[in-house]
Amino acid sequence: MLDAGRHPKVNLLAYSQVEEVSGEVGAFQLKVRKKARYVNEDLCTGCGACVEKCPSKVEDEYNIGLGERTAIYKYFPQGIPSTHCIDAENCRQLGQGKKCGICAKVCQAGAVDYEQQDQFVDLEVGAIVLATGYDVFDPSVIPEYGYGRIGNVVTAMELERLLSASGPTHGHLDRPSELALRVEIAVLEKELQKATRQIEKLEEKHGKKTAKFVKEFKAGKAGEDGDFERWASLAEKAAVAEEKLAPLKKREATAHTAKKLAFIQCVGSRDFRFNRFCSSYCCMHSVKEAMIAYEHDNETTSSIFCMDLRAVGRGFEEYKLRGGKSSNVQYIRGRVAEITKGEAHNPIVWYESTTTRKVEHETFDMVVLATACVPSAGTPKLAELMGLDLDENGFFKTDPLAPLDTTRAGIFVCGCAQGPMDIPESVAQASSAAARAAEVVFTAPKAAAGGGK
Ligand SMILES: Cc1cc2nc3c(=O)[nH]c(=O)nc-3n(C[C@H](O)[C@H](O)[C@H](O)COP(=O)(O)OP(=O)(O)OC[C@H]3O[C@@H](n4cnc5c(N)ncnc54)[C@H](O)[C@@H]3O)c2cc1C
Ligand code: SF4
Ligand code: SF4
After folding, report:
1. Which ligand ends up closest to the CA of 49?
2. What's the CATH fold of domain 136-173+258-374?
């Protein structure tokens, strides 16, 4: 990606979308909307001074809501170009009609530009390669798995963010129930601190401790003063916050990271209710995640529940066995029927073991759902725009004998836009698609006239 960003012959249009397509193989015309970032890409040095000072905080989509980001932000640290962007909807100045402008004041490069508008770029190209990838299946449509209802049932993507050193927990496997507990404690402590500060001022003003004042106020002996109703209400507020905090802090003191993990395979894949196909990469990413969790903390144990573990690739079977031998990973053959909520927010997995032929259940610290690979949300619209057919699963349809060729000459597809596949396969396909595109550009009769890139 870095190389592509630096390459003199690669014109990278990030944060952009194709809006119109016309022409034909060898001479396509595209209209691309380059969305306003409100930050000048050429001036931004990526220093992040604006992020430090921005007061508007929202859920961080990149960390799947497990952390917060500011309204001026960088989607992810390694993004190319290394620049920032303002999310106008959540910006006080651009989207909420309030005065702010802090980011512009602190940006020494003068890169913030609240007046920036979307721009349109016209391109003439000989061939097009679609690499629009996939989305992850939303498991909340399977109510028996409890996603969204049982906090410690997470998706594999969420686990990836938790395990990442640059993620919301810096690689510690903190459970969502404990993360929510910490937020609850922080909110209550803030409330308590605010009330305490105001109470202290009133104590000083009236030369009396709050305990004595409350006793007198309740007995109707406090006398008359404009402050007294507020003082009594602040005292009540502080007492309630303290009462709520005590059990939460007790729970926090016994909290631990997730050490006993369950991985549920084929969530939304190989399931006639949702997607009939195998998502191909999830068996291996579950083994990988279980091994990484063990590397972080070698008290971690993982149970991978699967119909069969599809280690299809050179060295994959050996990798799977290595997980079992050296990383406390066990493979359980059985389809999980239900996940219920046990004590201390621990999920309980109910399954039929096809080995013992019994319905069994086991309690875990955290359950990880290996969700299906589904066509990215924009696929139908893009197919319509480009005049392409989709296959029976909603991915771009290709010719079985020329697997990168879509149903329109000169338009190719690679990676998960064509169907589920892992990174090495996506990269190999990308190279092949580039070669197919080059072939078209140099051989199609209209290429020279169209000035295709
Ligand atoms: C939890 C999890 C863990 C995984 N771990 C591994 C692993 O360890 N090893 C491995 O090999 N594979 C792994 N995979 C699979 C891997 O993510 C995919 O193989 C890979 O991302 C496919 O690459 P891609 O470029 O085809 O698609 P994507 O990575 O999805 O990239 C597509 C890009 O296109 C952009 N886009 C989409 N629509 C448009 C549009 N209309 N206009 C402009 N841009 C658009 C998207 O924003 C995105 O940036 C994992 C998958 C998951 C879910
Ligand atoms: S102007 Fe918007 S983006 Fe900039 S600091 Fe204020 S809220 Fe944040
Ligand atoms: S790769 Fe494994 S988990 Fe994913 S759908 Fe196929 S069999 Fe199921």
Report:
1. 2
2. FAD/NAD(P)-binding domain (3.50.50)
